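Lecture notes, unit on protein representations.

Consider one protein chain, 172 amino acids long.
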Amino acid sequence: MDFQHLFEINPRHKVLICRSCQYAIVPAHFKTHLQVYHLRLSLQQRRDFTQEVESASNIARVHEDVVYPSPTDPPIDSLPVYFDGLRCTWVSNTDVCPYVCRTLRLMREHCKQKHGWVNQQKRGGDTQAKQLHSTNKIWVQDRACQRFFKVSSWQRYFEIASVPPKASAEST
């Protein structure tokens, strides 16, 4: 099995994507990734693959060097597309907040901590008549999004151009 069959180096975004696991791998964690998730590879294959990643110059070695797609870019084929994303719409001067997540709890937490947002929806009352989202929300919902990494410090969802859901796309 060759390197290109299992992995994709995406030079535009400077990430290494595992095709079978469907997420990007932090280069410093590549050897461990092979040992944990790709046990069928021989020791020599793992060494060769590790050498290839170590010698690649077009992979971000620190999180700040990763180039994230813009919201108008098409989905990255090797990654699952989620259609339940929430995107922060906060604008300050000319800066637009790039935060995207998939849970209401995380979005509310982000908006409170980063933007000083206060939920105007009070507790109690007729909960069936109330909306799921506050009337003064500063986010939009049902956005198509993807993420590169699963590692907490590198993990970040990003919005992509919306595409019609496919049978294989994840939405949970």
